[in-house]
Design a protein that fits this description.
Elements: E1 9-16, E2 19-21, E3 24-26, E4 31-35, E5 51-59, E6 73-77, E7 83-85
Antiparallel strand pairs: 1-4, 1-5, 2-3, 5-6, 6-7
């Protein structure tokens, strides 16, 4: 069985969604935030009116303890600074 014990950390990966520009497709790099001891995270410094892609990986202690990333969800920031989950 991969890992051992309870989940001790979550790895949140996010990036600005792929953009189709006149100069070509722009694929943005992933940003990573690790959290432990909590299941809530506020992501700051996002651009307004922008689509983002998120996935989460759960981790347990021990070899092989990092699970597979969750299916991606997308959300968009709006000009008023609020975030809307799309899927």
């Amino acid at each position: 069985m991969p890992g051992d014990g309870p989940i001790t950390e979550y790895i949140v990966n996010y990036r600005q969604a792929i953009s189709y520009e006149p100069q070509g497709v722009i694929e943005y790099p992933w940003e990573t935030i690790s959290i432990s001891g909590d299941t809530t995270l506020v992501v700051t410094d996002l651009h307004w009116d922008t689509l983002y892609e998120f996935s989460v990986t759960a981790c347990r202690p021990g070899e092989g303890g990092e699970g597979k990333p969750s299916p991606a969800v997308w959300g968009a920031t709006k000009c008023d600074g609020k975030f809307k989950l799309i899927s």
